[in-house]
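Limitations
The structure tokens in this dataset are predictions for the assembled complex, not deposited experimental models. Users should treat interface geometry with appropriate caution, especially where small molecules or nucleic acid strands are included. An illustrative entry is reproduced here so readers can see what is and is not provided.
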Amino acid sequence: MAVKKIFRDYLKDDIKEVRRIHSAIKRYNRIAIFRHIMPDYDALGCQFGLATWLKDNFPEKEIVVLGDNHVTFTPRLYPETDSLSESWFREPFLAIVLDVNSPSRIADPRYKKAKFKIIIDHHPAEGEKHANVQIIKTEAAAAAENILAILLNFKGNYVLSKKAASYFYSAIVGDSGRFQYSSTSKLTFACATECLDAGIEISKIYQQMYLKKIDDLKVTAYILNHFSVSDHGVAYYVLPTNIQEELNITTERGKENVNLFANIEGINAWCSITEDKKDNCWRVSLRSKEKPINQVAMMFEGGGHAQASGAKLNSIDDLPKLIAALDKLF
Ligand code: AMP
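Predicted assembly:
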């Protein structure tokens, strides 16, 4: 009972939007679910969690999941996304955009063709409102918490299946750093409780998410042998294309080791810098122990959360500027 109250209280000021989302879902027979580019556990877990929930509760509706497949998470953790021809988008459909609100970061621009658009996110709102209904609550550690809270506030007899709950759980574990980050709250644990009630197998999910290969240890070894730490406790590692080739990893995987530097005395912030030949830039993943680093991310064409942000450098010559900007915080 106490858990249900957490969900009710959390959305008490958003209940009109919750009702509008509920009625849009009931109204549309064709629903497409979108998320951000370069997806992570939260983006994919939200998409497949919601798609599964909708299929379980509205089996007569057509539910599709859009955006490219993840290079390592598919099909180990999440199924393949749908490929649709342009003609699919000519008939009326509802777009539900998850874990993103900035138009330039939505993985498939065809969300714009939707008759009705819903955004559910936990990233700070960027720019003008461009959806018919949006619930953006940055206090959630994962976007999946906002989605679960919304679904659990719908009036009706709905089921949360083990499969849907397993996807949502992976999303929450991913974005809360396994319930470690300061964004972890009683809402996070209330969501985990609901997922456990649905029968999820926690150890199986963790194994699927975090199982490593022996070769992955070589990547970690390289990073431990080559990282730098600035005067003010900013740790960073750089992975140019030739090193990615040598280590046999894709660009998407460059950030995988960034949290090696969490919980190290004297390290206040840490980042990975990975060359992206395709986009002709260097992708930056920024993390911080306490101080918000998203303002610095915004200075380098990025953004995100206070303690976890993304950015990019157009040239590696800009790296000293990035480190200096972070150094200034500490
Ligand atoms: P990453 O380092 O790519 O794992 O990103 C960390 C967090 O920052 C994720 O929640 C991303 O969705 C978010 N993020 C990354 N890049 C941007 C950006 N350019 N604008 C806004 N949020 C971002």
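Some entries come with short summary sentences. For this one: Residues 36 and 105 are 5 Å apart (CA to CA).
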